[in-house]
Amino acid sequence: MNFLANVARSKGDPKIVSSGPSVRTPADRMARALGWFSIGLGTVELLAARRLTRALGMRGREGLIRVFGVREIMAGVMSLSVDKQAGLKSRIAGDGLDILALLAALRFDNPRKGNVVLALLMVGAVTMLDVRSAQDLAVQHDPKRGRRRLYPDRSGFPKGIAMAKGAARRLPSRAAAS
Amino acid sequence: MRALVWHGKEDIRCDTVTDPEIEHERDAIIKVTSCAICGSDLHLFHNFIPAMMPGDIMGHETMGEVVEVGGGVNGALKKGERIVVPFTIICGECDQCRRGNFSVCETTNRNKALAEKIFGHTTAGLFGYTHITGGYPGGQAEYLRVPYADRTHIKIPAGMTDEQALFLSDILPTGWQAAVQCDIEPTDSVAVWGCGPVGQMSIRSALLLGARQVIAIDRIPERLSMAEAGGAITIDFDKESVVERLNALTDHKGPDKCIDATGMESHVNMAQPATLLDRAKQMFMLESDRPHVLREIIYVCRPGGVISIPGVYSGFSDKIPMGALMNKGLTVRTGQTHVNRWTDELVRRIEEGQIDPSFVITHRVALEQGPEMYRVFRDKQDSCVKVVLKP
Ligand SMILES: NC(=O)c1ccc[n+]([C@@H]2O[C@H](COP(=O)([O-])OP(=O)(O)OC[C@H]3O[C@@H](n4cnc5c(N)ncnc54)[C@H](O)[C@@H]3O)[C@@H](O)[C@H]2O)c1
Ligand SMILES: [Zn+2]
Ligand SMILES: [Zn+2]
């Protein structure tokens, strides 16, 4: 990576010799991973809806799967953006919908019940990851972190506000003095 | 040397890089003694301003001691002198520089073709910013090469401390220009959106320039308290309706002059669906800026009033109420700051004790802690308003 960054530098500009640690946290990385996962899964749902419904014994629900695909992709893009938290929240809501849809397919007469159970287990595991990362991110970005203090004494006017009001409208003091 | 290097969205690291060298006879090299993190750096941190490249050194609020000068500097700078470096690189000779329009200098952008394609014309080269403005390495580093150094500098008068002088590089003249552009009259109500460092300087400038009342809008308690300390009446937009309060404070006429010191990343909240829509469009790259504050300003500004926009916008904004803007006869003034245009008078005001811009500093840390401070400043943690780094 640094090699590429250095090749692209203008001649004479400082080049990277060695890199310090990144401030991306494990929670950031997890959100990114989940974002890409979401986009991947969404693409599969969108493009291979028929195969999925067949595997899950949910024939006729292709439309629903495609809508879910779009939802996954949007949640993925959000999770990759600066607003990772909103992305993960929408993923968690989506996980809920997935679970409901799978539970509805868990009927006795579904010959692919086994696959549905497997899918439920997978969605359950991913949901746990989503919830965990959302919690970690909430802590990480909480504005209440660190000391809280107010700044009522920071006027920036060494001579006080009354003197400052309109001071720049009056003649410059130096000119007035000379 | 060590420097804060951009590696991608939300990924700034303290790297070891090669030292800068004199490349051109008008260059100088300074040893950085203080530098600061700006709200504009947050737009870069979020990768909202296009054309950043991994390996770019951040930072455009810098000061230090001259350690080397090129042959073409011709005595304008000497080794050992203390200077503040304006964030706009200026040649001092082109038509725009001669008019004092330094931030649109026609000479210093080394990627002019790119700027012309995107903006129609080139603007000045800027330190530690996108490649559209030249991609010059920035000053959050131990050393900085200053191009066109014979003109791109501010000499620090003896007796002025680093912290008093540092913000002559950007936020003090930015707040000042924002207020000057308002043509403030003694009867004016001036409203300032955003109480970050630029908003704080705008509030002080509007007061110095004689506004009848200054009204400051934000949602962060410590920033509002700092605004109040500077003489402003405050509005917490999380708790009250901005439009209603502004109308109540101005006899239902609306503020005569409005300053947008928030820029393209205006806060998104559930109560304002338009902000959610902007954020969604920004995510999917259908819109580059979130212009909520601009819309609010156009709506609430008194007819015939002035809108001054120091806040940075990068590309395209949707649903700007042009009907209101036109029919109310509003004047819009904006721009990256023409830093050196204001230097002499601001230096004098600091020396005379009219203003001391160091009031805004809440954090002083070593350069190595810089990457972490980007997060703290962004998330408004630890009551952070302004971070100064000491390499
Ligand atoms: N024109 C120039 O030359 C120039 C120079 C420096 C900075 N800037 C720009 O000025 C802007 C502010 O810089 P800063 O350092 O103060 O940044 P900052 O991010 O610290 O401050 C922005 C403030 O705006 C507030 N805000 C967000 N949404 C709001 C809303 N809807 N209404 C009111 N307030 C809202 C935030 O809470 C925050 O306190 C940035 O866009 C920056 O890029 C421009
Ligand atoms: Zn700045
Ligand atoms: Zn010029």
Provide keyphrases for this structure:
heterodimer, A: 178 residues, mainly alpha, 8 helices, 63% helix, B: 391 residues, alpha/beta, Quinone Oxidoreductase, Chain A, domain 1, Rossmann fold, 2 domains, 7-stranded mixed β-sheet, 6-stranded parallel β-sheet, 13 helices, 18 strands, binds nicotinamide-adenine-dinucleotide, binds zinc ion
Radius of gyration of chain A: 28 Å
Rg of chain B over CA atoms, rounded to whole Å, is 20 Å
The percent range for helix content of chain A is 55-70%
Task: Using a beta-carbon cutoff below 8 angstroms, give the protein chain pair with the largest interface and the number of residues from each chain.
Answer: A-B, 57 and 74 residues
Unreliable sequence segments of chain A: 173-178
- The named CATH superfamily of the largest domain in chain B: Medium-chain alcohol dehydrogenases, catalytic domain
Q: How would you state the average pLDDT of chain B, rounded?
A: 97
CATH architecture of the largest domain in chain B: Alpha-Beta Complex
Shape call of chain A:
elongated
Helix count of chain A, per DSSP? 8
Oligomer: heterodimer
Strand content of chain A: under 5%
What does this molecule look like?
The complex is a heterodimer of chains A (178) and B (391). Chain A is mostly helical and 178 residues long. Chain A has a domain at 27-140. Chain A is 63% helix and 2% strand. Chain A contains 8 helices and 1 strand, in the order H-E-H-H-H-H-H-H-H. Chain A has helices at residues 2-7, 26-47, 49-55, 62-80, 84-104, 113-141, 161-164, 173-177, and one strand at 16-18. Chain A is elongated, with a radius of gyration of 28 Å. The N and C termini of chain A lie far apart (62 Å). In chain A, 28% of the residues are buried. Chain B is an alpha/beta fold. Chain B has 2 domains: 2-170 and 337-390, Quinone Oxidoreductase, Chain A, domain 1 (Alpha-Beta Complex); 172-334, NAD(P)-binding Rossmann-like Domain (Rossmann fold). Chain B contains 13 helices and 18 strands. Chain B has helices spanning 39-45, 95-98, 112-119, 162-165, 171-180, 197-208, 221-229, 242-249, 273-283, 292-300, 322-327, 339-351, 370-378, and strands at residues 2-8, 11-17, 28-37, 56-57, 61-69, 82-85, 88-89, 125-126, 143-146, 154-155, 189-193, 213-218, 233-236, 257-260, 306-309, 331-334, 363-366, 387-390. In chain B, the strands form 4 sheets. In chain B, strands 3, 5, 6, 9, 10, 17 and 18 form a 7-stranded mixed beta sheet that branches. Chain B has a 6-stranded parallel beta sheet with strand order 13-12-11-14-15-16, with helices on both faces. A 3-stranded antiparallel beta sheet of chain B has the order 2-1-4, with helices on one face. The longest helix of chain B is centred in the last third of the chain and has 13 residues, at 339-351. Strand 1 (16-18) of chain A pairs antiparallel with strand 2 (11-17) of chain B, so a sheet runs across the interface. Bound molecules: nicotinamide-adenine-dinucleotide and zinc ion (ZN) (2 copies). One zinc ion binds at residues 38, 40, 60-61, 87, 170 of chain B.
